[in-house]
Amino acid sequence: MDNRISDSNVAYLELDESKMVSRPVTKLKPSIQDKNVLQEIVEHATTVIHVLTFGLTAFVIYLCFQDDSFNSRTWHALLYTIGWFVLSSEGILFITKDNIASKRVTSRWRTRGHWIIITLGVSLAIAGFIIIFTHKTKHFASVHAITGLISGILGCLTCLSGIPTLFSAELRKKIPPNYSKLFHAVVGSAAVILGATALITAFYKKWFLSKVDYNAVVKKREKMDSSISTISFPKNDFQLQQNGKILSSKPSINLLQDVVEHITTVIHVLNVCLTIYVLYLCFLSPFSLVTWHVFLYTLGWTLLMSEGILALIKENIFTKHIQQPNRVRIHWATLLLATQLIIGGLGTIVWNRSRVIGSHFLTEHGISGIVATICGFVAVLNGIPTLYSVQLRRFISPNLNKLFHAFIGFATVVAGAYATITGYYTGWRAIPDRFHTGED
Q: Quick one: three-class SS letters along 14-67?
């Protein structure tokens, strides 16, 4: 019997240690009931994203039209919000078969709707970029501007890579379809994440704060109230001078902080629950090399990697009372431990496939997993100069150093999430106990 067996016919192979004869295991997919539960979860998640997307968009559009100051910054905010936040998000969700807005649409029309909506969204975002670029003299000097520029470039690259992805069947002799689709998905996800970062940092810009802060309303009443003498905006605090007295008020960003804190709390709950569930599946039968792979990757990637990233966020309920230097220490210590577990999980699955199949990284799960692992290792190495960015500022700009660290970290998270999702369809979950020898 040929020891090399195609991945399309075999999920995993285990060796009978007594007879030293390899026996193939028929690929088993998750049960229909498990699949329906996963589809319902995805459908509810997309519904929540729809509501949040349109709710935030309606709020920003309201801010744009609440007064007559429709300048270049307002046009920039309006076009980018509609083009990037609404159309790009909805275009990505439209191709998802569990999306409530497109689940009854055929796959061909979902693809068409996807690229039409994304093209329109990127076009509006480019228009918003041109407007703000032509009306500013100093460019790309803030985190908002840098992340916005990079996300725009990645968005254009995603649109261009969508052409070979759309015609992947015709170009399969030159470019493997899995490679073109994986590149399109990774670059697109990175564009969305950096775009979301640019959007979040925009909420701390003067335009947004002047629209939502109470002192901006006081400024409008200045013309009607003669007792108000001056209004100044020094640094981050808004001060109102009245009859020689100074009334100070901080920007009203507590609502945004509360939203971020609740989001991180939800992520904590999901991480812990998903980790517990997968670990429970691991202990249902004796451990094999494949089970060790799942066990180590779940602890290292799903739990520690996510928690290490969240440790840096000051709105995190577990670290919000910890000073910034200590949050950074928790961040790199947790990610270092997670990387060690991930390397162990990679070693176990490579060893298992070498001894029973001999081929590696042929599936979407394998390719995205190795890409995520490599990016994670690069992010960990890059964390060293990022940690000492102040001491190395003569050689490399601290902002560029931190931006690269954040970008490669985002790419790691995106590829890792894709590998995790595809891992649920590999068939490991449905392998019966009799196929686990326990000798590994």
A: EEECCCCEEEEEECCCCCHHHHHHHHHHHHHHHHHHHHHHHHHHHHHHHHHHCC
How far is Cα 200 from Cα 197, in angstroms, rounded to an integer? 5
What is the distance of C-alpha 217 from the center of its chain? 36
Q: What is the pLDDT of residue 319?
A: 87
Tell me, what's the pLDDT at 307?
Answer: 92
Instruction: Give the separation between CA 267 and CA 255, rounded to whole angstroms.
Output: 19
- Extract long-range pairs of 137-143: CB within 8 Å, 24+ residues apart: 142/201, 143/197, 143/201, 143/399, 143/403
Phi, psi of 229, deg, nearest 5: -90, -55
Long-range contacts of 148-151 (CB under 8 A, 24+ apart): 148/80, 148/194, 148/195, 148/198, 150/194, 150/403, 150/407, 151/84, 151/191, 151/192, 151/194, 151/195, 151/197, 151/198
pTM above 0.70, yes or no: no
- For position 207, what pLDDT does the model report? 85
Contact 80, 86 (CB under 8 A): no
Query: What is the spatial distance between Cα 246 and Cα 224, in angstroms, rounded to a whole number?
Result: 19
If we measure between CA atoms, which residue out of 310, 313, 420 comes closest to residue 369?
Answer: 420
CB atoms within 10 A of CB 177: 15
Positions of the chain with pLDDT under 70? 1-36, 68, 213-256, 429-440
CB 292 within 8 A of CB 440: yes
Q: By the 8 A CB rule, do 434 and 286 touch? A: no
Burial label, 232 (beta-carbon count in 10 A; 0-12, 13-18, 19+) = exposed
**What is the pLDDT at residue 231?**
39
pLDDT of residue 242: 41
pLDDT tens, residue by residue, 218-245: 454 454 444 434 434 334 434 444 444 4
